[in-house]
Write a structure and sequence with these properties.
This protein has 14 helices and 22 strands. The model has no long low-confidence stretch (mean pLDDT about 95). A six-stranded mixed β-sheet has the order 1-5-4-2-3-6, sandwiched between helices. It is about 35% helix and about 20% strand. The protein has about 475 residues and is of the alpha/beta class. The chain has four domains: about 15-155, Alpha-D-Glucose-1,6-Bisphosphate, Chain A, domain 3 (3-Layer(aba) Sandwich); about 160-270, Alpha-D-Glucose-1,6-Bisphosphate, subunit A, domain 3 (Alpha-D-Glucose-1,6-Bisphosphate, Chain A, domain 3, 3-Layer(aba) Sandwich), CATH 3.40.120.10; about 270-380, Alpha-D-Glucose-1,6-Bisphosphate, Chain A, domain 3 (3-Layer(aba) Sandwich), CATH 3.40.120; about 385-470, TATA-Binding Protein (2-Layer Sandwich), CATH 3.30.310. This is Phosphomannomutase. Its EC number is 5.4.2.8. One of its GO terms (molecular function) is phosphomannomutase activity. Its cofactor is Mg(2+). Keywords: Isomerase, Magnesium, Metal-binding, Phosphoprotein.
């Protein structure tokens, strides 16, 4: 029997598709039943926690996936509107597997799901998501067996508990007063920031003056997309920081599991600089109790990350790109912190999961404890020139990679094949640079990241690699 191909919907790390086309209520119900059979029941679990973002389609999809779970005899605790890290908190605190209904930073017509095992442990292609895909495809053709006793669905609001927990991890009440512009992009940051950094959850007032941009929840994203990786979506934040004379600007993506920063001059802060800043704080915290901090960074983080962490006595460990990879390595090594170039930041104290809000709180704490502006505080953590990630669509990935290898293999160049190809020329003699080219998991794309000790060298290497990739 032929089953539908769901590989375009259920990807390597999550579920993401166009609502009404790729992702319907029937598909969501099948995914719910498949999640029960592939993940929940084999783990001897009987309850799943579900949350959803502010998109118009999210409540209905949450109801549909809950129907699939309950039909297989699994109880559901619905925490309602929340950020993705709010869902991870619920999974961790309740010790239950979870499903978050969100399409993160994707446009309004999209929606999706992020799944985890109990205590927010990642579910990816090789840790159960492939099995969910196969079963869901089958259940769309051959109806799954319903349990003798259906699971129950109950509701529980956990926003206050989430806010209290985060404040317990990073106290913010004793630093100097800060003026903070926050761009929520009409997404979940507009729900969580007032609770955690303000008084909406009934918590004490912090020495923070929050200037809100686009806090009204609106899944159509009427002001700009909730994707801070695209610098065009940070223009309003940069302007507002300068207009208000703010100490810092913060931007959250659609489901608020990532956080980006702008300094007091309106300059965008690289995620690697935040990885250095937070990593050094966590390294000092471990050292205070006689432990060596293990900190994970993905392979396209700045070279400054392992350099500075090693110098401070930490044990930096390189990971492949992707949240399921870094979360698994975090848990395996009991790492206190992890950072990715995409502004995902992971914390041992937060169930080894990522939290944009917790990363923001660390930056605010560091800034509040210092008498220097953010640009000066971070200057030492961003010493190199970087290209950012550049995508190129190619006719043949192997042929494009062969052209790159031919053009850049040579004396003094070290080539590694850990997560794509990384070419490194970094010595005391000659130019210092490295670049990584990785193939997309789902499209004929190559992703390029270049870093060099000097801007001119970075630009020369960047342009040369792109010419090799794009020539045919």
């Amino acid at each position: 029997m032929n089953f539908p191909d769901l590989s375009g919907l259920i990807k390597s790390y999550d579920v993401r598709g166009v609502v009404g086309e790729d992702l319907t209520h029937d598909v969501a119900k099948a995914i719910g039943a498949a999640f029960a059979d592939a993940i929940v029941l084999p783990d001897s679990e009987r309850t799943v926690v579900i949350g959803h973002d502010m998109r118009d389609s999210s409540p209905g999809l949450a109801t549909a996936i809950a129907a699939g779970l309950s039909a297989r005899g699994v109880d559901v605790i619905h925490v309602g509107l929340c950020s993705t890290d709010g869902l991870y908190f619920a999974s961790g605190m309740l010790n239950l597997p979870g499903v978050m209904i969100t399409a993160s930073h994707n446009p309004a017509e999209y929606n999706g799901m992020k799944m985890c095992r109990s205590r927010a442990r990642a579910v990816g292609e090789n840790s159960g998501l492939g099995d969910v895909r196969a079963l869901a495809s089958r259940y769309l053709v051959e109806p799954f067996e319903t349990a003798e006793t259906a699971g129950t669905v109950t509701e529980r609001d956990m926003l206050v508990e989430y806010a209290e927990f985060l404040r317990s991890l990073v106290p913010l009440g004793h630093g100097r007063p800060l003026k903070v512009v926050v761009d929520a992009a009409n997404a979940m940051g507009g729900y969580t920031v007032p609770a955690v950094l303000g008084t909406a959850a009934g918590l004490p007032e912090l020495p923070l003056e929050i200037i809100p941009l686009y806090f009204e929840l609106d899944g159509t994203f009427p002001n700009h997309e909730a994707n801070p990786l695209d610098e065009e979506n940070l223009r309003d934040l940069q302007a507002a920081v300068l207009e208000h004379g703010a100490d810092i600007g913060l931007a959250f993506d659609g489901d608020a599991d990532r956080c980006f920063a702008v300094d007091e001059k309106g300059h965008i802060v690289r995620a690697s600089a935040i990885t250095c800043l937070v990593g050094l704080r966590e390294t000092a915290r471990e050292a205070a109790v006689g432990r060596t901090a293990t900190i994970i960074h993905n392979l396209i983080s700045s070279r400054a990350v392992p350099e500075q962490l090693s110098a401070a006595g930490a044990n930096p460990v390189r990971s492949k790109v992707g949240h399921s990879n870094i979360k698994a390595q975090m848990a395996e090594l009991n790492a206190i912190f992890g950072g990715e170039h995409s502004a995902h930041f992971y914390f041992r104290d937060f169930y080894f999961a990522d939290s944009g809000m917790l990363a923001a709180m660390h930056v605010l704490a560091a800034l509040g404890e210092s008498d220097r502006p953010l640009s000066e505080l971070l200057e030492a953590h961003d010493p190199y020139a970087a290209s950012g990630e550049i995508n190129s669509r190619v006719a043949s990935v192997p042929e494009a990679l062969a052209r790159v290898r031919e053009g850049f293999a040579g004396d003094g160049v070290v080539i590694g094949d850990f997560d794509g190809l990384t070419f490194t020329h970094w010595s005391d003699e000659g130019d210092r640079w490295w670049f990584n080219v990785r193939a997309s998991n789902t499209e004929p794309l190559l992703r390029l990241n270049v870093e060099a000790a000097e801007q001119s060298v970075m630009e020369r290497i960047r342009d040369g690699v792109l010419a090799a990739i794009r020539s045919s």
